[in-house]
Amino acid sequence: MKRFLSVVALLAVSGLGLSLSAQQTPSTTPSTPAQASSTPQQPADAANPSNSARSFEGKITKSGDSWVLQDKASQTSYKLDDQDKAKQFDGKDVKVMATMDASSNTLHVVDITPAESK
């Protein structure tokens, strides 16, 4: 009888240890239907440091029928996704806070302010 109780106690303690271990180990299988989809989830902008807003300085100019930022530092023209806001700064030196879509060379404008005079 003692042997039987010892075996039961040993199994109970082992099961408890496995249960605690499983709770601390992150699961690699999706737990929700959204996670189970075959398309990879894109991280949010805030969680993706390579896509966080940064400052661009240059002059707002017209290129064809679109307003662009002519960046002083890189001598690159960037398309601006907020054409209404950009139009207000035509021909002016500005500082643009934006995230950049490198695949289309487009700045997703957060804010446009006049550049500081030096």
Can you tell me about this structure?
It is a single chain. By secondary structure, the chain is α+β, with helices and mostly antiparallel strands. The protein has a domain of 62 residues: OB fold (Dihydrolipoamide Acetyltransferase, E2P) (Beta Barrel). 24% of the residues lie in helices and 32% in strands. A five-stranded mixed barrel has the order 1-2-3-5-4.
Short description:
The protein has two helices and five strands; from the N terminus they run αβββαββ. It is α+β, with helices and mostly antiparallel strands and 118 residues long. Strands 1-2-3-5-4 form a five-stranded mixed beta barrel.
Keywords, please?
single chain, 118 residues, alpha+beta, OB fold (Dihydrolipoamide Acetyltransferase, E2P), 2 helices, five-stranded mixed barrel
Order of helices and strands: HEEEHEE
Instruction: Give the CATH level 1 class of the domain at 53-114.
Output: Mainly Beta
- What structural category arises from helix and sheet content? alpha+beta
What is the overall silhouette?
Answer: rod-shaped
Sheet with most strands: 5 strands, mixed, barrel
CATH architecture level-2 label of the domain at 53-114 = Beta Barrel
Q: What's the number of helices?
A: 2
Please specify the SSE layout and strand pairing.
Layout: H1 2-24, E1 54-63, E2 66-71, E3 77-80, H2 83-87, E4 93-101, E5 106-114
